[in-house]
Amino acid sequence: MRTILPLSALCGLVVLAFFFLAPRAPEAFPPERFEPEIPRTWDSTALADFVLPLPDTSVNVQVPSEDYYYSLPARVIYKTYPVYHPDYEPEGYLDSLRQREPVDVFDPSKLVTEEDWIRAGELVFDAPHFILPLDSPLGLSGRIAIGAPMTREGIFPGAFYVVTEGGLRLGAAACGSCHTRVMEDGSIIKGAQGNFNLDRLRVHAEARTLQLPETALRMTDRTLYCAPWIDHPSQTQLDTLTRHGFIAAHAAIPDGVLLRQGTNHAYPARIPDLRGLKDHRYLDATGHMRNRGPGDLMRYAAFNAHVDLLIRYNTFIPEFGEHEGPLPPPGTFIPPFPPGGFNRFTDAQLYALARYLYSLEPLPSPHRYDEATLAQGERVFIEEGCVTCHTPPLYTNNELTPALGFIPPEDHFETYDIFDASVDTDPGLALYTRRGTGYYKVPSLRGLWYRGALLHDGSLTTLDELLDPKRLDDDFVPSGFKGAGVTHRAVPGHPFGLELSEADKAALIAFLKTL
Amino acid sequence: MKPAVPFLMLLTLCEALHAQPQWQVDSASVAFEITNAGLPVHGTFAGLEADVRFDPDDPAHSAILASVDASTVDAGIGLRNKHLRKRDYFYVNRYPRIRVESMHIEQAGADAYLGTFLLDVKGVQREVAVPFTFTSHDRNGRLSGTFTINRLDFGVGESSLILANDVTLSVILDVSRQDPR
Description:
The complex is a heterodimer of chains A (515) and B (181).
Chain A: H1 7-21, H2 44-48, E1 61-62, H3 66-71, E2 80-84, H4 93-98, H5 114-125, E3 130-132, H6 140-145, E4 155-164, E5 167-172, H7 175-178, E6 180-182, E7 188-190, H8 198-210, H9 214-225, H10 233-236, H11 243-251, E8 257-258, E9 269-270, E10 282-283, E11 289-290, H12 294-304, E12 312-313, E13 316-317, E14 321-322, H13 347-358, H14 371-383, H15 386-389, E15 400-402, H16 412-415, H17 428-431, E16 439-441, H18 463-466, H19 502-512
Helix pairs in contact in A: 5-13, 8-11, 12-13, 14-19
Chain B: H1 4-19, E1 22-36, E2 39-53, E3 63-74, H2 78-85, E4 97-109, E5 112-121, E6 124-137, E7 140-150, E8 163-177
Antiparallel strand pairs in B: 1-2, 1-8, 2-3, 3-4, 4-5, 5-6, 6-7, 7-8
């Protein structure tokens, strides 16, 4: 009897034969271990010329010593879990989290490849600075109340559940809280100018829940914004801040703008776009700090994780007010801010964060226009002189322009990258705040297509508005930041492209939206 | 008497210059063109002051001295002009005038001349060759020349990804005879 193999068995034999007869793949080598040379964050030599001087050079500025900085407790990068809108939250989600143990997710000994470091940096980027009670109004209830942007999965970026040794908590105020943009389709762009409004959340929390004494509100905002050596109404008004004033000031902050520590109520800062950061020589709208490599970015993050509140300006220390003596040793005082007290990222954590931020490249624009329109837009971009400061390929010349009224000292021309002509925008942030340097940085236009806050204070939100000559008039109503109690005001300066034909204007905007 | 020799030469030169027809500048155009990001940018200077002693038939004994007010630089955009006046470019507070002085002029053809001038921009002096024409009718004349310089030779701006180094300058002087015929 002849035996006929069924077709399926035949196929099986072929597969088996292929498996045994096919050349074996070479043994996989373990990846080569990446051994980074981690810069020392609090390096006195590097710090000496890392921060740009204040416009008022008579102020004696002293940062905490290396010993002091490294005696601050090191942070734990806890594993975090997303905060869902209730309509999207998996059933039994919080109960399941309560069963979990705290996990420290940052272990440098387990980071083998360069990619591992970058991924670990993303964890630091999303590590909450504040660990708060689970029912904090800065958490789920507040975000629902203010209509905070959420992803298509129903997640509020920038808010986290954290399992700590003390149980399940709310985590807030990560780097990513302000530097994550939720797009209209519910996708997110990490590192972009964020559109979650922290100031609106603070107003909601204060008005609805916290009801802190007026003196506490005043103390917190003086800590965050006071610069007593500056004789300007935007500073002196902090001394008499009322609850109403607090709420009005923070409620006046639009999306994409932040009353960051070191700014003030009248002069907030646009949230910067971090994509392409590795190519930028200066950090902050005022070029407050330099970016000469990962070490500087580590220092920037260390300062802005609230160690900047311990800088001494003459006899004023933001955290302590007028304070003649040395800084109280860490652990010997409970500050009203930041919640949980002072701590520091480890150098390894900061290095990973810097590598992650340096890995964030600008994203290609989804906008498409015909070639003739783009060619016309590029021509206008050149003819109107935009190209001089917003020079391709970075679309910034990486220079600092003096704010209106500031005359750069002679030695700055040798030390910094100065474009010695003011564009005459509002000088407040550069002159009347702790982050002030007398300059504004020329920002990159890459990624302009998704940004919602333009100019250093986000007073404008669209390119149409930026190119509208009516914005120079006192009765103009800016769509972005106006200031507390302000209904209309001129948005002066940056006088480019204000007399374009409609066709040239449309072409220029099209070109800009493709960068 | 060796010291007397240069003195006598100078005296002879002065005599020769003195004998040259002197021209008054009635109107002047001092323009420049530079390529920025692939497109031409046009600009001007004003405030010309000049001493033109020029004999079309004896260019070798002619002399032209001229200067413009550096702060009048106008490249079409207000803020750009402001920047051009600063130290990166013309630094007009320290170097208020841009000067040019002839060192040698020779005939190069009918109505055509080639001048060697000492150009002083931002305190840097360099020789430049300037071909120019001179045409006249009765007591009126027009001197017109175009030449190209490298702005970096004079410390005007820095090397740039988008801004060309070469700048072309065009000078037109409408002149009339000052001295009696």
